Amino acid sequence: MSEFARLAGQQCPPQESLALELAAELGVDGVALSAARRSLGVLARGLGDVRSPGEQLEALRALAARVLRPRRDGALLLPEVLREGRGHPVGVAVALVAVAQRAGWPVDLVGHNLRLYVAHRGHGPGAVVDPSRVEALLDPRELGEDLSWRCAHEATGVVLRQVTTAAERSGDLTRSLTASALLLALPVDGTSRAAQTAMHQRLLSRLN
Asked: What is the pTM of this model?
């Protein structure tokens, strides 16, 4: 059993751990994984002694604007986002939460469909970091969407669906198939599993 599969079978694995093991499954080597862990530590220490929930969210927003700039065509995997200093908004959201949790802050992901945002467990619904718009904190009521907390399984599912789609669009069916197979290792409800299985079968038929 791979480390990714082992973590995927746990009830609530850390966001960072599952994100790094996902990267390993998708071909990121051990040197890059070690560099990502070091980068997370450096960024977490650089956040400073910020105590209030609002200030912590603002510090993360500023970090994204400064060193984790969002791009729609940017990297999705955590080590690549950290190395490049930019990434797809989904990848930036995962990176921000990994940094915050390294600092011991009660920050996690919330989302709607394939969108992820950064929220503070002690801040209520007052503000979120929208990784696609890092100029200012966002009042989530402006989104017109019901946001819910996203555990590492759910966040990884969002990343994998984005990877699957991007790889298929670029013609990399092997990578797309790998990502869709990893989706099937995540614990989901029956409806979601049926949809993921159908997508995987469709990709297999395209490859053949």
From this structure: 0.92
